[in-house]
Each structure stands twice: as structure tokens, then as C-alpha cells.
Amino acid sequence: MPIASINPATSETLKTFEPLNPAQLDEKLQRASETWRNYRRTSFADRARMMLRAAEILETEKKDFAQLMTLEMGKPINAALQEAEKCALVCRYYADNAERHLANEVVETNATTSYVKFQPLGVVLAVMPWNFPFWQVFRFAAPSLMAGNVGLLKHSSNVPQCALAIEDIFRRAGFPAGSFQTLLIGSDQVEVVLEDSRVAAVTLTGSEPAGRSVASIAGKQIKKTLLELGGSDPFIVMPSADLETAVATAVKARTINNGQSCIAAKRFIVHSKIYDEFEKRFVAAMKKLRVGDPMLESTDIGPLATEQILKDLEEQVQVSVAAGAKILTGGQKFKAEAELALGNFYEPTVLVDIPKGSPAYQDEIFGPVASLFRIADIDEAIELADATPFGLGSAAWTNDDAERDRFIEELEAGSVFINGMVASDPRLPFGGVKHSGYGRELGEFGIREFVNIKTVWIK
């Protein structure tokens, strides 16, 4: 079946690609394996030179890359520009810091000399999602290539042009032809790649079912895995918070990338003393958001990436409402006009009175739909925040030191942001706990995920 690039704003098919046949796939695997034998011996200085060139390409051609992202998956053009810029930032970070992060670590023992050495594992498969089609790939590729590994990218099938563009960036930056390759294959071929002895490890960002499948296959082959899965992130607001800033940030945190982000705030847990005012301001701000053509800089909310995602979101809202939830604004597909009439648009939506067991109570809602909850105290806030199988990010708004310390200690998540919006940063580790996955990307921890941590003992 052809791999199709479809504009989610118009439902127009932009381009189709034939997936790799078995012989073509084997050729790419062999090229990756052979390339690694030499690439692993390159110096950090040579890798950094090429990585900095990749950053330059991203910066100088960011408008073209942004338009491609917006065309293929519908993110607002301003957000797409920022994504290209952030990819350049992670390239520069690892170009500057990889050698330091992977330097030998001396450990005093009864040996004459003993130390820990970090060496690349080999060919790493990256199974990546569509929602941040450049960033998700670069936050894997930059540390992995700087560590001396080579990469194979199995990107989401709805962003094939982005996948090919990323491969081309690394080629133009001077990296060897087999050091980073895009595999235009379907999900049904991932197992074949993972079972191949030439592939050493796999990283996946995506859904919980996809994570279970990849981890199961890799486990049978005893191969290292890293999983960054879904999230149902809490956004807690206490009475001491700066309410105006909290509301403005809450709207942005829920609707970033059209609401299609694992670390987007999804459940807004607000203290009863300020709940009514928060709800009033939040709903008013959600109503003001402009839905429409993602190519326009004035647009706040573009289309959802695929028709199926739109259908899934509609069902989650409908099931939650049938269970007792109430809609304060939105709640249905947005009716665009003219050439956008067939686009996958959904109204910014706010739900309240959400019963336990309904999708909006604890599941991941991938779209511009916010769940509001009223709580009486910090104990209830923490209990509700942790009442989900996910544990990716969390945000808490308070100017009370005791409350801050409790949130940091007790929120079950891979990150806790106090008085700020959850975001990934090349300098800090990123990942989750519980059903949000395991392992860490970014920072010093990220570059050490796919290396052999070798003990050296000499006497």
C-alpha cells in the first residue's frame, strides 16, 4: 500500500510513495551496519563539525521546513518555525557537549587504574510520531550520532516528506550516507527490522499500544529500548498562584500543536477558592482562539493531523458527555469554509463535571479539549493528579513553599514544572514513568541511553 502525504487542512493528497521492498530494506540495513564500523571511530570534533552544519541548514532553511511540517500534519506555521529552530538548538547543544558527557569517568578502586568508558552500541532504530515531525527525530538523532551510533528512521506514515527532508539535512551536513537513513515502510515491517541482528537498539515515541508492541519484540531479541509514550498531564492551580499568568499559560499548554502533544496540559485541577474565576477566564480565552488555515500567522488552532484522530477525539468527548460531563464551550467539529471545508478541524473545548471512568477523566485526549476539576485542598489535588496510568509531565502553580515541595515530592511524573508550562529542553532529561514509558532523552542522560557503559580495570 502506498505511503500518502495528505494535507489535513484540505484532505488533499500531496504526494505518494511506494514502501521499500524487502531487497531495498535489506540494502539499507547493510549500509547502516557497514557505515557504523567506520563512523564509530570518527572523532568528536569531526562529528561536531557535521552536527553544527546540520544546525546551520535548519536555521537558514527554517521557513521551508516549517511549511513542509504544516502541510503534512497541520501545525500552525509559527509553531513549525519554532520547531525548526529548536532542532538547530539540540544539534548545537550536543555538538558542544557530547564529548564532555561521554568522557571517561575515573573511579578509585584497588586497581592501578579503573574507569568507566562510554562506547556506541551500533545501529539504532527510531520509530517516531507525526506530531512534532522534526523535533522528535532530532532529539534522538543529535545525541545518537554524536555518540557514534548510526540511525534508521521509521517515521509516521503521514509525514514521509518530513522524514526524507531530515535524511537530506544530515547528508548535506556531511554525515556518511549510511549514518542516518529514512525507511519508508509500514508499521507491519517494524518487526522485521527489529529482529534483524544488524540493529542494536530501538527508541519509540508514540502511543501506549505501539510501545507495548515494540518493547515486546525487542525484549524477545534482548535489545535495548527507550519508550516515550502518552500523557494525561495535570495542571494544578492553587490560591497563591498568579491567576492571570496561570490562565494564559493554561490555554497555551492545552492547545499547543493543536492540542496534539504528549506533554500538553490536559487536566486542569483548580482550588475551590479560585476555581470560579479561573473557569470564567479560561473559557473566555478558549472561545477567542482562532481556528483555521495553519499557514496563516494569525491562526491559533489548525487541523488535527488525520481524519482518524478527529474521529477518535469526537468519540472521547461524546462518551464523556454521555457519562455526565458538561460542555462549557466547543464540543464538536469546527465547520470551516471554502477549501478548508474537508479539513480535520475541531473546536477548542472545555469540559467540567467529569465523572470517574470517562475518557476525559484520565485518558490522553489528543486535541484542543480541556478537562476542568475543582478540588478542596492540596491532598485532593495530588490524589487527582496521580489518578491516571500516565506519568509524563506535570505543572503546579503556587507561591507557597510548602505546597511547592509537596508537589515536587509527590507528583508521579518524569518532570514537575512549578509556575511554568511543561516543555522539553536539550539541557534537561526528558521522559516519563508508569505507562508513559521509560528511559530518558536529552541532556547528559539522553546521550548515555544508547551506549555501552563499559567498566575498565587495570593492574
Outline the structure in words.
- By secondary structure, this protein is α/β, with parallel strands linked by helices.
- It contains 15 helices and 20 strands.
- The strands form five sheets. The chain has a seven-stranded mixed beta sheet with strand order 12-13-14-11-10-16-17, sandwiched between helices.
- 42% of the residues lie in helices and 20% in strands.
- It starts with a strand and ends with a strand.
- The chain has helices at residues 22-39, 44-60, 62-73, 77-101, 135-147, 160-172, 190-195, 208-221, 243-255, 272-288, 307-322, 359-362, 378-385, 401-410, 443-447, and strands at residues 3-7, 12-17, 105-106, 113-120, 123-127, 150-154, 180-182, 201-205, 224-228, 233-237, 265-271, 326-329, 349-352, 369-375, 390-391, 395-397, 417-418, 433-434, 437-438, 451-458.
- The radius of gyration is 23 Å and the shape is globular.
- Helix 2 (44-60) packs antiparallel against helix 5 (135-147) and helix 3 runs antiparallel to helix 6.
- The protein has two domains: 3-229 and 436-458, Aldehyde Dehydrogenase, Chain A, domain 1 (3-Layer(aba) Sandwich); 233-425, 3-Layer(aba) Sandwich (Aldehyde Dehydrogenase, Chain A, domain 2), CATH 3.40.309.10.
